[in-house]
Specification:
- This protein is about 75% helix and about 0% strand.
- It has one domain.
- The protein has 19 helices and no strands.
- Helix 12 packs antiparallel against helix 13.
- It is globular.
Protein backbone atom coordinates (compact mmCIF):
# COMPACT_ATOMS: atom_id res chain seq x y z
CA UNK A 1 0.00 0.00 0.00
CA UNK A 2 1.38 3.44 -0.94
CA UNK A 3 2.57 5.73 1.82
CA UNK A 4 0.18 8.74 1.73
CA UNK A 5 2.56 11.02 3.61
CA UNK A 6 4.52 13.59 1.57
CA UNK A 7 8.27 13.36 1.39
CA UNK A 8 8.61 15.92 4.19
CA UNK A 9 7.02 19.30 4.80
CA UNK A 10 10.30 20.46 6.34
CA UNK A 11 12.07 19.99 3.01
CA UNK A 12 9.94 22.40 1.08
CA UNK A 13 11.28 25.74 2.30
CA UNK A 14 14.34 27.16 3.99
CA UNK A 15 14.29 30.93 4.62
CA UNK A 16 11.87 31.38 1.76
CA UNK A 17 13.84 29.13 -0.60
CA UNK A 18 13.04 25.66 -1.83
CA UNK A 19 15.51 23.47 0.01
CA UNK A 20 14.82 20.66 -2.44
CA UNK A 21 15.99 22.75 -5.41
CA UNK A 22 19.09 23.95 -3.57
CA UNK A 23 20.06 20.40 -2.57
CA UNK A 24 19.46 19.02 -6.07
CA UNK A 25 21.49 21.86 -7.53
CA UNK A 26 24.27 21.14 -5.03
CA UNK A 27 24.45 17.50 -6.11
CA UNK A 28 24.44 18.59 -9.76
CA UNK A 29 27.25 21.14 -9.44
CA UNK A 30 29.38 18.59 -7.60
CA UNK A 31 28.63 15.59 -9.80
CA UNK A 32 28.99 17.45 -13.09
CA UNK A 33 32.67 17.83 -12.25
CA UNK A 34 32.99 14.08 -12.85
CA UNK A 35 31.66 14.53 -16.38
CA UNK A 36 33.73 17.66 -17.02
CA UNK A 37 37.13 16.43 -15.85
CA UNK A 38 38.23 15.11 -19.28
CA UNK A 39 37.24 18.48 -20.75
CA UNK A 40 39.59 20.25 -18.35
CA UNK A 41 42.52 17.86 -18.53
CA UNK A 42 42.53 16.12 -21.92
CA UNK A 43 42.24 17.00 -25.64
CA UNK A 44 38.71 17.60 -26.83
CA UNK A 45 37.90 14.21 -28.46
CA UNK A 46 38.97 12.40 -25.29
CA UNK A 47 35.86 13.83 -23.60
CA UNK A 48 33.75 11.20 -25.39
CA UNK A 49 36.38 8.69 -26.48
CA UNK A 50 39.00 7.28 -24.06
CA UNK A 51 41.04 5.97 -27.00
CA UNK A 52 41.51 9.47 -28.42
CA UNK A 53 44.56 10.30 -26.33
CA UNK A 54 47.28 8.27 -24.69
CA UNK A 55 47.43 4.58 -23.97
CA UNK A 56 44.12 3.82 -22.27
CA UNK A 57 44.90 1.20 -19.66
CA UNK A 58 42.44 -0.92 -17.67
CA UNK A 59 42.05 1.79 -15.04
CA UNK A 60 41.25 4.41 -17.64
CA UNK A 61 38.71 2.19 -19.35
CA UNK A 62 37.11 1.30 -16.01
CA UNK A 63 36.76 4.96 -15.07
CA UNK A 64 35.28 5.77 -18.48
CA UNK A 65 32.86 2.83 -18.19
CA UNK A 66 31.64 3.84 -14.72
CA UNK A 67 31.24 7.44 -15.80
CA UNK A 68 29.27 6.42 -18.87
CA UNK A 69 26.94 4.16 -16.93
CA UNK A 70 26.27 6.39 -13.93
CA UNK A 71 27.04 10.02 -14.85
CA UNK A 72 27.28 10.99 -18.51
CA UNK A 73 24.51 13.30 -19.67
CA UNK A 74 22.37 13.01 -16.57
CA UNK A 75 24.15 15.64 -14.47
CA UNK A 76 23.84 18.11 -17.33
CA UNK A 77 20.25 16.93 -17.60
CA UNK A 78 19.74 17.59 -13.89
CA UNK A 79 21.19 21.09 -14.27
CA UNK A 80 18.86 21.71 -17.21
CA UNK A 81 15.85 20.38 -15.30
CA UNK A 82 16.65 22.68 -12.37
CA UNK A 83 17.24 25.63 -14.69
CA UNK A 84 13.74 25.18 -16.07
CA UNK A 85 12.23 24.86 -12.60
CA UNK A 86 14.10 27.93 -11.32
CA UNK A 87 13.02 29.93 -14.37
CA UNK A 88 9.38 29.15 -13.65
CA UNK A 89 9.78 29.88 -9.92
CA UNK A 90 11.42 33.27 -10.53
CA UNK A 91 8.72 34.22 -13.03
CA UNK A 92 5.96 33.24 -10.60
CA UNK A 93 7.48 35.18 -7.72
CA UNK A 94 8.12 38.23 -9.88
CA UNK A 95 4.52 38.25 -11.08
CA UNK A 96 3.25 37.83 -7.51
CA UNK A 97 5.35 40.85 -6.48
CA UNK A 98 3.76 42.95 -9.21
CA UNK A 99 6.83 42.92 -11.44
CA UNK A 100 7.04 42.06 -15.13
CA UNK A 101 8.28 38.48 -14.86
CA UNK A 102 8.99 38.07 -18.57
CA UNK A 103 11.05 41.27 -18.71
CA UNK A 104 13.00 40.21 -15.63
CA UNK A 105 13.68 36.78 -17.12
CA UNK A 106 14.95 38.21 -20.39
CA UNK A 107 17.30 40.55 -18.53
CA UNK A 108 18.57 37.61 -16.47
CA UNK A 109 19.24 35.62 -19.62
CA UNK A 110 21.03 38.60 -21.20
CA UNK A 111 23.34 38.95 -18.22
CA UNK A 112 23.92 35.19 -18.10
CA UNK A 113 24.82 35.22 -21.80
CA UNK A 114 27.45 37.92 -21.23
CA UNK A 115 28.93 36.16 -18.20
CA UNK A 116 28.95 32.88 -20.10
CA UNK A 117 30.75 34.45 -23.06
CA UNK A 118 33.43 35.73 -20.69
CA UNK A 119 33.75 32.25 -19.20
CA UNK A 120 33.94 30.37 -22.52
CA UNK A 121 36.35 32.87 -24.10
CA UNK A 122 38.76 33.61 -21.29
CA UNK A 123 38.54 30.61 -18.94
CA UNK A 124 37.17 27.34 -20.37
CA UNK A 125 35.66 26.35 -23.68
CA UNK A 126 33.30 23.83 -22.07
CA UNK A 127 30.98 26.56 -20.80
CA UNK A 128 27.25 25.75 -20.65
CA UNK A 129 25.98 29.17 -19.48
CA UNK A 130 25.76 30.74 -22.94
CA UNK A 131 23.71 27.80 -24.17
CA UNK A 132 21.41 27.95 -21.15
CA UNK A 133 20.85 31.66 -21.67
CA UNK A 134 19.73 31.12 -25.27
CA UNK A 135 17.58 28.08 -24.52
CA UNK A 136 16.18 29.90 -21.50
CA UNK A 137 14.83 32.60 -23.79
CA UNK A 138 13.01 29.96 -25.84
CA UNK A 139 11.73 28.27 -22.66
CA UNK A 140 9.83 31.45 -21.75
CA UNK A 141 7.23 30.56 -24.38
CA UNK A 142 6.27 27.38 -22.49
CA UNK A 143 5.84 28.59 -18.90
CA UNK A 144 2.07 28.90 -19.10
CA UNK A 145 1.48 25.29 -20.15
CA UNK A 146 -0.09 22.72 -17.87
CA UNK A 147 1.94 19.84 -16.45
CA UNK A 148 0.57 17.48 -19.08
CA UNK A 149 1.33 19.82 -21.97
CA UNK A 150 4.80 20.56 -20.64
CA UNK A 151 5.52 16.83 -20.59
CA UNK A 152 4.18 16.42 -24.14
CA UNK A 153 6.31 19.36 -25.34
CA UNK A 154 9.36 17.86 -23.59
CA UNK A 155 8.83 14.53 -25.34
CA UNK A 156 8.45 16.29 -28.69
CA UNK A 157 11.71 18.16 -28.08
CA UNK A 158 13.44 14.89 -27.17
CA UNK A 159 12.08 13.36 -30.36
CA UNK A 160 13.41 16.30 -32.38
CA UNK A 161 16.78 15.89 -30.68
CA UNK A 162 16.84 12.22 -31.68
CA UNK A 163 15.94 13.11 -35.26
CA UNK A 164 18.76 15.65 -35.47
CA UNK A 165 21.15 13.15 -33.90
CA UNK A 166 20.15 10.46 -36.37
CA UNK A 167 20.75 12.83 -39.30
CA UNK A 168 24.25 13.45 -37.96
CA UNK A 169 24.89 9.73 -37.56
CA UNK A 170 23.50 8.96 -41.02
CA UNK A 171 25.87 11.55 -42.50
CA UNK A 172 28.79 9.94 -40.69
CA UNK A 173 27.83 6.46 -41.83
CA UNK A 174 27.55 7.68 -45.41
CA UNK A 175 30.93 9.39 -45.15
CA UNK A 176 32.64 6.29 -43.79
CA UNK A 177 33.33 5.12 -47.36
CA UNK A 178 35.61 8.16 -47.76
CA UNK A 179 35.21 7.96 -51.52
CA UNK A 180 34.88 11.70 -52.21
CA UNK A 181 36.71 14.78 -50.91
CA UNK A 182 33.51 15.82 -49.12
CA UNK A 183 33.19 12.42 -47.45
CA UNK A 184 36.83 12.49 -46.38
CA UNK A 185 36.43 15.98 -44.88
CA UNK A 186 33.28 14.97 -42.99
CA UNK A 187 34.87 11.77 -41.72
CA UNK A 188 37.85 13.76 -40.45
CA UNK A 189 35.56 16.27 -38.73
CA UNK A 190 33.82 13.49 -36.82
CA UNK A 191 37.16 11.91 -35.94
CA UNK A 192 38.27 15.21 -34.43
CA UNK A 193 35.05 15.48 -32.42
CA UNK A 194 34.41 11.88 -31.33
CA UNK A 195 37.11 9.62 -32.72
CA UNK A 196 40.86 9.08 -32.66
CA UNK A 197 42.33 11.84 -34.83
CA UNK A 198 45.95 11.09 -33.91
CA UNK A 199 48.64 12.94 -32.03
CA UNK A 200 49.45 15.37 -34.86
CA UNK A 201 45.85 16.61 -35.03
CA UNK A 202 45.75 17.14 -31.27
CA UNK A 203 49.13 18.86 -31.02
CA UNK A 204 47.84 22.44 -31.59
CA UNK A 205 45.32 22.18 -28.77
CA UNK A 206 47.87 20.66 -26.39
CA UNK A 207 50.44 23.35 -27.21
CA UNK A 208 47.88 26.11 -26.73
CA UNK A 209 46.57 24.80 -23.40
CA UNK A 210 50.10 24.28 -22.05
CA UNK A 211 51.13 27.71 -23.29
CA UNK A 212 50.44 31.15 -21.85
CA UNK A 213 46.91 32.36 -21.18
CA UNK A 214 46.98 34.45 -24.36
CA UNK A 215 47.67 31.35 -26.50
CA UNK A 216 44.85 29.39 -24.87
CA UNK A 217 42.47 32.31 -25.36
CA UNK A 218 43.44 32.64 -29.01
CA UNK A 219 42.84 28.92 -29.50
CA UNK A 220 39.41 29.19 -27.90
CA UNK A 221 38.50 32.16 -30.09
CA UNK A 222 39.48 30.18 -33.18
CA UNK A 223 37.79 26.93 -32.19
CA UNK A 224 34.78 27.74 -30.01
CA UNK A 225 31.58 26.69 -31.70
CA UNK A 226 28.80 29.05 -32.72
CA UNK A 227 26.27 29.40 -29.84
CA UNK A 228 23.43 29.73 -32.35
CA UNK A 229 24.47 26.49 -34.04
CA UNK A 230 24.47 24.78 -30.64
CA UNK A 231 21.01 26.22 -29.99
CA UNK A 232 19.71 24.57 -33.15
CA UNK A 233 21.49 21.22 -32.73
CA UNK A 234 21.50 20.44 -29.00
CA UNK A 235 18.96 23.07 -27.97
CA UNK A 236 15.94 20.72 -28.29
CA UNK A 237 17.61 18.23 -25.94
CA UNK A 238 18.36 20.94 -23.37
CA UNK A 239 14.87 22.40 -23.71
CA UNK A 240 13.27 19.00 -23.14
CA UNK A 241 14.92 18.76 -19.72
CA UNK A 242 14.01 22.36 -18.87
CA UNK A 243 10.37 21.68 -19.68
CA UNK A 244 10.41 18.54 -17.53
CA UNK A 245 11.77 20.75 -14.75
CA UNK A 246 8.86 23.15 -15.11
CA UNK A 247 6.41 20.26 -15.07
CA UNK A 248 8.16 18.75 -12.04
CA UNK A 249 7.83 22.03 -10.13
CA UNK A 250 4.16 22.50 -11.04
CA UNK A 251 3.32 18.90 -10.12
CA UNK A 252 4.94 19.10 -6.68
CA UNK A 253 7.67 16.60 -7.55
CA UNK A 254 10.45 19.13 -6.86
CA UNK A 255 8.95 20.52 -3.67
CA UNK A 256 8.78 17.20 -1.84
CA UNK A 257 4.97 17.18 -1.99
CA UNK A 258 4.66 13.64 -3.36
CA UNK A 259 4.37 10.56 -1.12
CA UNK A 260 7.68 8.81 -0.49
CA UNK A 261 6.36 5.65 -2.13
CA UNK A 262 5.80 7.54 -5.36
CA UNK A 263 9.38 8.85 -5.38
CA UNK A 264 10.60 5.30 -4.76
CA UNK A 265 8.61 3.98 -7.72
CA UNK A 266 9.94 6.66 -10.03
CA UNK A 267 13.50 5.98 -8.85
CA UNK A 268 13.23 2.23 -9.37
CA UNK A 269 11.57 2.43 -12.77
CA UNK A 270 13.88 5.18 -14.10
CA UNK A 271 17.03 3.41 -12.92
CA UNK A 272 15.82 0.06 -14.27
CA UNK A 273 15.35 1.65 -17.70
CA UNK A 274 18.34 4.00 -17.91
CA UNK A 275 21.27 2.24 -16.24
CA UNK A 276 21.11 -0.99 -18.30
CA UNK A 277 20.68 1.09 -21.47
CA UNK A 278 23.78 3.16 -20.70
CA UNK A 279 25.68 0.00 -19.80
CA UNK A 280 24.70 -1.61 -23.10
CA UNK A 281 25.77 1.47 -25.08
CA UNK A 282 29.10 1.62 -23.28
CA UNK A 283 29.84 -2.08 -23.71
CA UNK A 284 28.91 -1.94 -27.39
CA UNK A 285 31.18 1.07 -27.87
CA UNK A 286 34.03 -0.79 -26.17
CA UNK A 287 33.43 -3.86 -28.33
CA UNK A 288 33.76 -1.67 -31.44
CA UNK A 289 37.21 -0.60 -30.34
CA UNK A 290 35.83 2.91 -29.70
CA UNK A 291 35.06 3.32 -33.38
CA UNK A 292 33.89 6.86 -34.13
CA UNK A 293 30.61 5.54 -35.53
CA UNK A 294 29.74 3.70 -32.33
CA UNK A 295 30.74 6.65 -30.15
CA UNK A 296 28.70 9.09 -32.25
CA UNK A 297 25.66 6.81 -32.40
CA UNK A 298 25.54 6.56 -28.61
CA UNK A 299 26.44 10.20 -27.98
CA UNK A 300 24.15 11.83 -30.51
CA UNK A 301 21.19 9.49 -30.86
CA UNK A 302 20.72 6.45 -28.65
CA UNK A 303 21.20 8.04 -25.24
CA UNK A 304 18.66 10.89 -25.67
CA UNK A 305 15.58 9.21 -24.14
CA UNK A 306 17.58 7.40 -21.46
CA UNK A 307 19.30 10.64 -20.46
CA UNK A 308 15.92 12.22 -19.76
CA UNK A 309 14.62 9.16 -17.92
CA UNK A 310 17.82 8.84 -15.90
CA UNK A 311 17.76 12.53 -14.98
CA UNK A 312 14.28 12.21 -13.48
CA UNK A 313 15.31 9.04 -11.68
CA UNK A 314 18.34 10.69 -10.10
CA UNK A 315 16.22 13.66 -9.02
CA UNK A 316 13.74 11.30 -7.31
CA UNK A 317 16.56 9.35 -5.63
CA UNK A 318 18.27 12.50 -4.32
CA UNK A 319 15.00 13.81 -2.90
CA UNK A 320 14.49 10.50 -1.10
CA UNK A 321 17.96 10.72 0.45
CA UNK A 322 17.69 14.29 1.74
CA UNK A 323 17.52 14.80 5.49
CA UNK A 324 16.52 18.37 6.48
CA UNK A 325 18.81 19.71 9.18
CA UNK A 326 21.42 17.03 8.59
CA UNK A 327 25.04 18.01 7.97
CA UNK A 328 25.21 16.61 4.45
CA UNK A 329 21.89 18.03 3.32
CA UNK A 330 22.70 21.45 4.78
CA UNK A 331 26.17 21.59 3.21
CA UNK A 332 25.06 20.26 -0.17
CA UNK A 333 22.15 22.72 -0.27
CA UNK A 334 24.58 25.56 0.52
CA UNK A 335 26.79 24.46 -2.37
CA UNK A 336 23.66 24.48 -4.54
CA UNK A 337 22.69 28.00 -3.47
CA UNK A 338 26.12 29.01 -4.74
CA UNK A 339 26.05 26.76 -7.81
CA UNK A 340 26.97 29.57 -10.22
CA UNK A 341 29.96 30.60 -8.11
CA UNK A 342 31.03 27.00 -7.50
CA UNK A 343 30.75 26.18 -11.21
CA UNK A 344 33.04 29.05 -12.19
CA UNK A 345 35.36 28.40 -9.23
CA UNK A 346 35.77 24.83 -10.46
CA UNK A 347 36.74 26.10 -13.90
CA UNK A 348 39.29 28.49 -12.38
CA UNK A 349 40.79 25.77 -10.16
CA UNK A 350 40.99 23.07 -12.83
CA UNK A 351 42.32 25.32 -15.59
CA UNK A 352 44.98 26.59 -13.17
CA UNK A 353 46.10 23.00 -12.61
CA UNK A 354 46.01 21.92 -16.26
CA UNK A 355 46.66 25.06 -18.32
CA UNK A 356 49.92 26.86 -18.99
CA UNK A 357 49.08 29.98 -16.98
CA UNK A 358 49.16 27.67 -13.95
CA UNK A 359 50.80 24.28 -13.54
CA UNK A 360 50.64 23.28 -17.21
CA UNK A 361 49.48 19.69 -16.68
CA UNK A 362 47.19 19.49 -19.72
CA UNK A 363 47.35 16.04 -21.40
CA UNK A 364 50.03 14.89 -18.94
CA UNK A 365 47.76 12.80 -16.67
CA UNK A 366 45.99 9.61 -17.64
CA UNK A 367 42.21 9.45 -17.48
CA UNK A 368 42.03 7.59 -14.18
CA UNK A 369 44.41 9.96 -12.39
CA UNK A 370 42.49 13.16 -13.15
CA UNK A 371 39.61 11.98 -10.96
CA UNK A 372 41.85 12.18 -7.89
CA UNK A 373 41.14 15.92 -8.00
CA UNK A 374 37.38 15.50 -7.68
CA UNK A 375 37.08 14.75 -3.92
CA UNK A 376 39.24 17.74 -2.87
CA UNK A 377 37.13 20.06 -5.03
CA UNK A 378 33.96 18.63 -3.55
CA UNK A 379 35.41 19.16 -0.08
CA UNK A 380 36.10 22.81 -0.84
CA UNK A 381 32.53 23.34 -2.07
CA UNK A 382 31.07 21.74 1.04
CA UNK A 383 33.35 23.56 3.44
CA UNK A 384 33.26 27.10 2.12
CA UNK A 385 29.72 27.54 0.79
CA UNK A 386 27.80 27.55 4.07
CA UNK A 387 30.15 29.91 5.98
CA UNK A 388 30.10 32.31 3.04
CA UNK A 389 26.29 32.26 2.92
CA UNK A 390 26.04 32.67 6.69
CA UNK A 391 28.14 35.84 6.41
CA UNK A 392 27.06 37.33 3.07
CA UNK A 393 23.72 35.69 2.22
CA UNK A 394 24.59 35.07 -1.45
CA UNK A 395 27.45 33.72 -3.48
CA UNK A 396 29.61 36.43 -5.11
CA UNK A 397 28.58 35.59 -8.67
CA UNK A 398 24.94 35.12 -7.68
CA UNK A 399 25.06 38.63 -6.21
CA UNK A 400 26.70 39.99 -9.36
CA UNK A 401 24.07 38.31 -11.55
CA UNK A 402 21.25 39.77 -9.47
CA UNK A 403 22.86 43.22 -9.31
CA UNK A 404 23.34 43.34 -13.09
CA UNK A 405 19.77 42.14 -13.66
CA UNK A 406 17.83 44.11 -11.05
CA UNK A 407 20.13 46.93 -10.06
CA UNK A 408 20.39 45.75 -6.46
CA UNK A 409 22.01 42.67 -4.87
CA UNK A 410 19.40 41.88 -2.20
CA UNK A 411 18.41 38.21 -2.19
CA UNK A 412 14.74 37.27 -2.16
Amino acid sequence: MSDPAPLSPAMTTDRGRLLTLDALRGVAVMAILIANMPGFALPDPAYSNPAAWGDAGPGDIAVWLLTEIFVTGRMRGLFSLLFGASTLLILQRADQAGLNGASLHLRRMGVLFVLGMIHRTFIWTGDILVHYALVGIVALAFVGLSVRRLCIAALLMAGLSMLLGWLDCASLLAASARDTPQAIALWHAYQVAFGTPGAAALAPEIAAMRGPWSAATAFRLDNNGDPLFDLMTIGPDTLSAMLIGMAALKSGFLTGAWPRARYRRWTIVAMALSLPAYAAMAITTMASGFDVRAVSLAELFLNVPFRLIGTVGYAALILLLLRPGGWWTTRIAAAGRMAFTNYIATSLAMTFIFYGHGLGQFARWDRAAIYLLVPPMWGLMLLWSKPWLDRFGQGPLEKLWRLATRGHPKSS
